[in-house]
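It is time I had a proper look at our fold encoding. Can you supply me with one protein entry, sequence and fold together? It will help me judge whether the discrete encoding reads sensibly. Leave the record below and I will have a look:
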Amino acid sequence: MPLMMDSPQEPPQPPSSQISPSPTLQRKQLAIPLPQIPHTTLHMQITTLDTSSLIFLTSTDPSTSGSLSALGSFVYAMPNRLQPSDPLCTALYSQTGSIEFANRVAKVLARRTEKPTYVGCSVVLGNSTVEEEMAGVRIVVEEVLKVVQGEKIG
């Protein structure tokens, strides 16, 4: 015989001192032309929380202006407590054209922010040189750090 109740019971509530406040969320979207790669724009969506960062990156140039961008790679990196100069990084979803860029950005940001970092990346830099690609990584890192430092200051 099933047990019947007149009114549903509410689960017990924790004392107010144990309720955690909602996380602080900051989101910023940017579009920055890459100075070393003409007619190429890097688009970023930067989302920071108290405990982690989530960055989505894509690029556009005149040859891709009317087409949709591929999903790209999704990477997770976290600070390494044993070797702080070498963050731990793993690909959650890997796409050949963007995995190296995503790994570089995620590792640098995890080391510099000392927070776990998720990076979604569909950046395609075509026939760029290593120097041009590193300039793109540098731009991303500088912009993300501005947002994260603004979060700490403000």
